[in-house]
């Protein structure tokens, strides 16, 4: 038996490989339950008592040597060098290119979530519209300049099909499809025939809100505006309304907030007025209610609309609107999404 042990000892001592499959084969041959060493331990039971000590010691030594050998070889196999494996393990890995959320999407989601908290549901309308939904049903006079080819991208004339110039067109679709009361907020991409510059683009984004119910008053509008401004720009933000004109609201107003950058003291961004113009709003014109089949004596409502690019520029201090459309990853990655 000692001869057997000696022979195996030499075999095990001489074995070498960096191939994990061969190392595993070696382990099974010698160290598994049916392996050579287990068989020797089985024979060991029959060894005469006076030889047990010497043979037992050699046997344990053999087992230990085999175990160490397997561990050593396994470790060495993991550290196989470039030359041996043919793969350069020192090369840097391929980085995963992660995208980031577009700043306009971040701001849009933030605005939508504020209106969501006020109970407004999201509705979206088509970008290609007819004259009725974009203009006529919103009380635009026949000769209103916005209907001009200069401002609107027409797809066809007579019948007039166009790219909607504002998200207000979705108000009309909402009045058609929802039962009263209506409380909707509408994000959308809009189109106007404007020269592209740092402050204007022919494609931009708006968010519109519309609320129609019995007894909706200007006070409700003001409260909504104030809540929105404080949630979005900070609790110390103040709001002011200036009289304005839109064909679809009466009275109409323009909402300003105290400049969030200089806190109302006056800076470049607010042109030293301390105020920033944020959105148009007003009480839904009775003509609009009537044109859309809503009883103007029973119902009233308010509407508001804002440009997402403008608000994003103000929020992040972006000075050129064209950056939003270039999609330069270095620009986009500066905005981290809170949502
Ligand atoms: N549609 C207007 C625009 O594009 C913005 C607007 C003003 C929307 C007043 C409204 C509103 O709902 O009440 O300039």
Q: What distinguishing features does this structure have?
A:
2 domains; alpha+beta; 339 residues; 40% helix; single chain; BirA Bifunctional Protein, domain 2; binds 3,4-dihydroxyphenylalanine; 13 helices; rod-shaped; 3-stranded antiparallel β-sheet; 7-stranded mixed β-sheet
Rounded mean pLDDT score: 91
The quaternary state of the protein chains shown equals single chain
Superfamily (CATH H level) name of the largest domain:
Bira Bifunctional Protein, Domain 2
Helical stretch tally = 13
**Which of globular, elongated, flat, extended, rod-shaped describes the shape?**
rod-shaped
- CATH level 1 name of the largest domain: Alpha Beta
Please name the CATH topology of the largest domain.
BirA Bifunctional Protein, domain 2
Structure class? alpha+beta
Which strands sit side by side, in order, in the main sheet?
Answer: 1-5-6-10-9-8-7
What small molecules does this complex bind? 3,4-dihydroxyphenylalanine
Give the tally of structural domains.
2
Stretches where pLDDT is under 50 for at least 5 consecutive residues are none
Radius of gyration: 38 Å
CATH architecture heading of the largest domain: 2-Layer Sandwich
- Please summarize the sheet with the most strands: 7 strands, mixed
Ends distance: 74 Å
